[in-house]
Amino acid sequence: LTRIRTLLPVDVVIRVGGRGQRLMPLPEHTPKPMLPVGFKPILEHNVDRLIKFGIKNICISVNYLADSIISYFGDGSRKGISIKYVFEDKPMGTMGSVKLCSQLDHDYILVMNSDLLTTIDYEAFFQAFIKSGADMAVATTGYLVDIPYGVLEVSSNNFVNSLKEKPRYTYYSNAGIYLIKRQLLTLVPDGQFYNVTDLMDTLLKYGKSIISFPILGYWLDIGKPEDYVKAQEDVKYINLG
């Protein structure tokens, strides 16, 4: 039996439409989200983890080799949840795909890419989002960059303001997992390509707020063959449940 950690009042949209061109020839006959990592497909790792946070309603946006995904998961009843599918006849972008999912029950939507392996704490993510009062939350991963030289901070007229000896900088990158208020879908045009970055630009333009949620646990975007090899090794040692 799956141990439910909490009951999050969110619907989930997972986008799985891409061909996974950078992973070819692996996804030639199997869509990238269905490639096995350990003993089950990448997408199933994500679905099973969502279930542990009480997620009951998932919409999957499909395109490439969609039949293999639909035949594997069906309507979700085997896992005690509801899974619906929408078809991208043309590329719609992340938020364009979300707009296609009409059967949503909750006021909050968790949107994620399908080709991730992560131990993100969805409950902490949701609580941080609600506590902040923001309109959108973006999960992020940190990258440390060490500069092996002394770095000068220089003014516009070339005067040195400060010197930092071999500094370390932390940058935060988009991890492909988002929480949004459902009402934001009114900002997404119907039937048009609209990416998540388009929505973020629109929110900032209108003075809306976006928060970052750093993932403290494991996260891997399986985009290249070497990422897939790493996933096969990492899954032996990490707990994705």
Provide structural commentary.
There is one protein chain. The chain has helices at 42-51, 66-73, 93-100, 122-132, 196-205, 225-234; strands at residues 10-15, 36-37, 40-41, 57-62, 82-87, 108-113, 116-118, 136-146, 150-154, 160-165, 168-181, 210-214, 219-221. With 241 residues, the chain is α/β, with parallel strands linked by helices.
Provide tags for this entry:
241 residues; alpha/beta; seven-stranded mixed β-sheet; two-stranded antiparallel ribbon; 6 helices; globular
Rg calc: 20 Å
By secondary-structure content and strand pairing, the structural class works out as: alpha/beta
Average pLDDT, all residues: 88
Level of helix content? 10-25%
Strands side by side in the biggest sheet: 5-4-1-6-11-8-12
Strand content: 25-35%
What are the secondary-structure elements, in order, as H or E? Answer: EEEHEHEHEEHEEEEHEEH
* Tertiary shape: globular
User: Please, how many helices?
Assistant: 6
Task: Give a count of the beta strands, DSSP E runs of length 2 or more.
Answer: 13
Low-confidence stretches: none
Q: Main β-sheet, in a few words?
A: 7 strands, mixed
Distance between the termini: 12 Å
Summarize, please.
The protein has 241 residues and is an alpha/beta fold. Helices cover 24% and strands 31% of the residues. Strand 9 (150-154) and strand 10 form a beta hairpin.
